[in-house]
Each structure stands twice: as structure tokens, then as C-alpha cells.
Amino acid sequence: MLDKFKAYLQQRMSITDEQFDLVASHLKTTTFLKNELVLSQGETSTRTYFILDGLMRSYSVDEKGKTHIIQFAPEGWWISDRNGLLNNEASDFNMDAIEPTTALIIPKDFFCTAAAHAPEFNLLNTTMLNNAIRFMQRRINLLLAATAEERYVDFVKLYPNLTLRVPQWMIASYLGITPESLSRVRKDLAHKHFKV
Amino acid sequence: MLDKFKAYLQQRMSITDEQFDLVASHLKTTTFLKNELVLSQGETSTRTYFILDGLMRSYSVDEKGKTHIIQFAPEGWWISDRNGLLNNEASDFNMDAIEPTTALIIPKDFFCTAAAHAPEFNLLNTTMLNNAIRFMQRRINLLLAATAEERYVDFVKLYPNLTLRVPQWMIASYLGITPESLSRVRKDLAHKHFKV
DNA sequence: TTAATTTATTAACATACATCAACGCTTGCA
DNA sequence: TGCAAGCGTTGATGTATGTTAATAAATTAA
User: Fold this and answer.
1) B85 in contact with chain A, both atoms CB, cutoff 8 A
2) Smallest CA–C1' separation from A176: which nucleotide?
3) Mean of the per-residue pLDDT values for chain B?
4) Three-class DSSP category at B104
5) Coil, strand, or helix at residue A49?
6) Which pTM does this prediction carry?
């Protein structure tokens, strides 16, 4: 199962087998059941998860009980609560597994200790963080500028894979619209011969 | 002028005068006029700016010519285009100075070279990046879950300083509403005795 | 200082999306 | 096997916010 993590790293940095073994010796895997709650709003967690298999999400629940999805994390993605990670503060969000999931538990100091074995881990870390920012800026821009239909089309192009795996109401919740609206958006797109 | 940067670093890490001098010797300051365009959509820039004085913003312009503000950067904030920084790609956004601005030019490899002099720069860098992600998740959550009024109230509490410095139509553009809507929101809040 | 431009407000009207409710379809579990 | 629960669709209706336009106030330029 660690092979997937090794492959992930090798695609993004140069790392020897020895370095990987040293680094990976600190890591444990864990599994979550479908719909298992991993972290609730108000709890504190300093862990990051690297998803080996399955699908997780982080989301908020507002006063009316409505759910708003902050992030999807399928295989090869990272997910964590930054409040806990940075300041040992309570999480603003919930986290759960949408599918049965296997994940690596990445402790808070992982990149720091890993960099002691292979300095390139520092660059990998900052590159990934910058990338996350880039994606979030893009999403914010869409939320500010685009219609529900445009946001859905963008989602499908960006995550064709997720579109099939995730129930529609979750996609709606990620896009910031109701499931009913998404249903209508899809109907309109079908008339315009939009595929998948 | 570099004093401000030194104070900024000293608040966030331990750094000696010698280390600072070494690190700062690579840096140049630059100034921008009010309304000066710093970067346009389609151009490539690998620079980051650290704002010493003044106020900058990054924003997109959609097909209808409407402006959508991605980020405000007042004194003590960083601003950059991640497309250029990460991949030497063209920027999705524009960047300009809202006020006359003095900024440090931070080259792409700054944190890497600085870490050679003071390793704590690595931690500072990742902490700041994680913090940026935290703030953006919070903003996304508000865009998904909150009304225009709630978002405005949140903005005013989070950036009381900016509320006074920035024209209303820019705040509207940051919140994802029209200036007319913001005007109405403010009127309603005034009736509810909301202050500032 | 006047003139020109930008910014903020207000009103009438338009629309994208939400809400509420009803109805089949699937799914999972008793 | 059957039945409850969840999911997706559709329709009728409601509402927050957008659009357009006019005007006033503030800022900038000449």
C-alpha cells in the first residue's frame, strides 16, 4: 500500500529507496468505513491524511443544517484541518469518508523530519501548498464570477472522475447551489448536448 | 524601510541581525503609483511582493468587463501570482496598486536561499502558506453558506482597517455582489444599528 | 475655482436560484 | 421479499440579488 505513496513522491522529487524507507518508517495507515466521521467541528486534530484509496471530504454545517463542502480528497490528495495543524485550535469543519478509505497518517512534523533525510521534501511541501492556494483562488474566482452552470461545467472538466463517484447533492453542495438547482442545470445542459 | 520587514520576521521567528543582513542583501524595494498596473492577465511573473506600505490587489475581469477581487494586500501581506511562481505560466489575474505602495521584491528562490542562512525560514514559509489556505477555506465557506449581509459583516470585522481605505465597489467586488447590493446591505445594517 | 470623472445611493423592474412539496427510482437492510 | 430511507426530478412559488437608470455627493483634473 505504501507503494502508491512512493510512486507519488518519485513523480515529484528524486528520492532513493533508502530515503523513502527511512521516511516511511514513521507512517501508519488507517482505514475508514463509508460515511465514517473522521473529525467534527470543534475537535482538534494536527494530523494530515494522504489518501491511498477511497474518497474523503471536509465540510461545514450551517445553522439551518445545510452542508457545504470545502474539499474533496480522492486518491493521491491530502486533507487536514489547518486550525489544528497550525495552532492546535478547534476545527471549523467536519471531515468524513465518502467511500471506504485507506489513508496514511501524516504527523504534523512529517515534512520537517523528512527534509532531514532528503532536503527536497521542503520544496515538495511548499510547491504543494502553493498549488493548493492556486486551486482555491481559481475556485473563489468562479464563485465570484460564474453562474451555477459555468461552475458545474468547470467542475466536470476538472474532476471527471469525481463526477461519477460522488452523489449529485454533494456536487451541488460543493458548487454552492441546491440539489434541485443542479438537477435543472443538468437538464438544460442535456438540451444543449453537453456530454457527461 | 527594511526595518518593517525585519520586525515582521522577528515576530515570527528567531533571527539574528547578521542573518537578517545576509538575507536582506538579496532584496530590492520598488514603488508603485496609485492605480499602477503591476501585472496583467496573460503575463508571467515569478516575483512575490511583500508590502511595506500601501495597498495592492489581485483581481480578474470577466467577459462582461466586471472585476472580481481575489485578494487585498495591505502592509505586512504578501502577494504573488502562483501560476508564474510555480510553473512559469501566464497569470489568470491582474495585479495593481490601490494606493501608492512600497514593496519588497521577493525572488522565487528567496525562502530556499534564506533557509541556508537560517533554517527556520522553512517553517515560516510553510506556516504562512498554511495560513493562507486557512483564510481561503474560510472565505470559500462564506461564499457557499452566507448571505451578502453576513459576508459584509464578516469582512468588516476581519478587516476593519480596509473597510475605511477601500472604495465600496471594491469591497462589493471582493464579496461577490454588486455595489448597489452592498449599498442596500449597508442601509439595512444601519437600521439595525450596526456600527462601522 | 470650475469642470469632469468617479463613487454612492435610490427606485423600478428582471432573473437566477432557493424553497416547498410531490413523485418515482434505487438501495439497503430487517 | 418487502419496505423504509435516500436520491434525483419536476412544478409552483418566493426571494435575494442583479440590472438599468437617474441623481446626488465626493474626488480629481484643469
Assistant:
1) yes
2) C17
3) 95
4) strand
5) strand
6) 0.96
Kindly tell me the number of DSSP H helices and DSSP E strands found in chain A.
9, 8
Please tell me the distance from the alpha carbon of residue B51 to that of residue B102, in angstroms, as a whole number: 6
Query: Which of B83, B93, B143 lies nearest to residue A143, judging by beta carbons?
Result: B143
**Residue linked to cell 474566482:** A141
Ordered alpha helix ranges (H), B42-109? 82-87
Q: Do residues B97 and B56 touch, judged by C-beta distance below 8 A? A: yes
Residues in chain B with CB shorter than 8 Å from the CB of A92 are 137-138, 141
pLDDT in tens, B9-63: 999 999 999 999 999 998 999 999 999 999 999 999 999 999 999 999 999 999 8
In a 3-state reduction of DSSP, which class is residue A142? helix
CB B190: neighbour CB atoms within 10 A? 10
Residues of chain A with pLDDT under 70: 195-196
Q: Is A86 on the interface with B (CB under 8 A)?
A: yes
Which amino acid appears at position A1 of this protein? M
